[in-house]
Records
---
Amino acid sequence: MCTVGGGPTGDLNFDERVTGKNYRCNDCGEKFESVSKKPICSCCQSDNVTAL
Amino acid sequence: MIVSLRDELLLISGTRSFLLAAKANALFALRIEAPDKEYCQTIEPSDIVVVSAPEGGAIEPAIMLAEFVRIYHMPLIVLPKDHPGSKRFSYLVSVGPLITTSCTIRRGTHPEQHLVCSSDELAGTTLKAHPDGVEITGLPSGISHQYVTYRMSTDFSRS
């Protein structure tokens, strides 16, 4: 059975390890945070983005 | 073990739980809605979508969940760590180039996509994207896999 609510070993703290960078899409202007090395716009899927 | 995978779905079955895997087959930005922010993860065509059903159950919801992500690019919702709804989740999904199953995490509460909650009988299985499909390691003995196809039709009629 999968542990629900924490098991004997406790739960891993993933939230603290999620770090992304903020970007702005040069095509549609959308601002977003991406955790990927090759960020693409979350709105128009363009890879023409600039790190903020 | 490398299993060929293109458009079809791969069912990995234990005695009381299962995983369903599929290739993403598209480049898109997957939105992940965490409790405090929204962030995106670039999904490559070779990446894999894995749905886990820790207690088993019908396969159709797993198929729908996989297709919500890979065809319709629906965002993933991440609950806060102590959210009471965590225990209600009977189907979990993760997307990425490498996904490992674990039975020691709280369902639906971790935004990182390299882990998915599973039953203990399937825990430790790793699915890695491969040009020909998916590379599976750590699969316990006695676990079977098979391809799954489905048909969905919608009929409209005047009432």
Note: Chain A has a mean pLDDT of 75.
---
Amino acid sequence: MAYFLEGLRQALKILFPPSREVLEIVGLSLFVSASATALAAVFAAPLGVFLSLVEFRGRRLVIGLLQTALAVPAVLIGLVVYILVSRRGLLGFFGLLFTPGAMILAQALLAFPIIAALTLAALKDKARDGRDLAYALGASRGRMLLTILRQGRFAFLAAMVAGFSRVLGETGMTLMVGGNIKGATRVMTTAISLETMKGNFEIGIALGLVLLVVALIVNVVLQWGQGK
Amino acid sequence: MRIEAREITKKAGGRFLLRRVSMEIPAGGVSVVIGPNGAGKTTLLRILGMLDRPTAGRMVYDGGAADGLGVRGRTALRRRLGFVFQHPLLLNGTVLANMRHALALRKRPFEEERVEAALAAVGLAGKKGLDVRVLSGGEKQRLQLARAMLLDPEVLLADEPTSNLDPLSTRYIEDQLLALARAGKTIILATHNIVQARLLGGRLIFLNDGEIVQSGTPGQVLRNPATLDVAHFSSSTNVLNGRLIRTGEDACLEAGGAAIHVVTELAPGLVTAVLRPEDIILSREPFHSSARNILSGVVEAVDDLGMVVLVRVRCEGLLLGAAITRSSLQELDVRPGEPAVLTFKASAVLVFPV
């Protein structure tokens, strides 16, 4: 217990005031995960709306695939992205391997099914009700979609928060495609993993505290939004 | 706007919700789609209101077919139709925000007086600032109607707007529908409430199991129901299960140990008959009349229904209810346990095959 308390003391020292290195790591983490969430949401949220609105042949299949994708291990996504962006890969010419770009791509793939499935689950009948409401008032198709967006805005927010939380805490896959390069691709989780193995608990504890605070803030904002 | 449905069929999940429904709704006036739960009323109204497409068949509005229209054409058509859903669909936010949203959807300017007038017409004048989540079910439904009226559609489709509402809210909605009809709008109302259908008048379209069973004025349909289901809607008090032992001029029905004269061309066998309580005359002594059925029995119960009193009389194995006015009850002074006589015409008994 004593060494934990000592680690905590050291951790607080690192955080107040924060070192340049810690700031960089936290900043990159938030940037990569927020970008990945946004990138995934651009495709996943419309898919969720589409699936809740439109009856078509194969709809059940698509929903089934989406649910299966939820269970795909992150490390497998890491492997696929690694192969894609490695020099001989399909996207090799971008030179993305061991860059934040590769990390964003992998995290976006991880967040995609989460955001799509949660949007679908949260909207359920809401999207159809929104369509009925707008069409009954003579809305154009564009205005109808805006009405659904308005009615479902907290559903989208909740889905994005869940996706963001998942990718922010993701370690193994991010390490595979990012490489945990100091000053370039080192993020909170990969740093915690590395420093803990090196026996430097204080950095691990410090970054762990930051992760907890970020998770707390994000969820408080969500709760506040839903209560309004 | 004149609306025609031509052989409309709607299938969902391998089940027929509507089967070749054809009808014509003239411009102006009230048309009431009536029928039991699950008859297809909502499905039909949604198709008439351009919220759903039929699986087969064609919708025609003012002579123009809707099935060939593109997105713009459908939107233009929808703008002439208003829809009030059975379960109010409202936007999260205040009463006023809902009215604003309706106008914004149509890119119309916000005119305070018109919004106030529409809310006042349904008794929501003082509730502008309330969040819709704190409104009662009746207030939500009234708000939905006010919002539809704000856009001034030519046709208003209302899907069971007053089911589950208190009498005050029901009254507001019925009054508004009547006012709209008087102003020349076309009202299409779905309901399973025969009293409401009679109140709003117009044409009755009886739907059952996805098919139109009968249509006409409420009086025609109620006096001469085409099927047992329709008859059940006019009265569920005196439903007799029995056997038709003779048919033709001297037709006779045996039910509960009593022989009842009826008028029917049905072949002898098991039948169900319906007798409206209003068609039975209650007396203390038998009297001479042209009515062929005179049954003696004992009063079992006297139920006060408000406008009328239902006197239930046991005749052999039959329990028949006769509806009489309150003043008749005072004059006759019948009480439970006392003898009474029921008189009714053979033609008042409606006989249906089982």
Note: Residues 20-53 of chain A form the longest helix (34 residues).
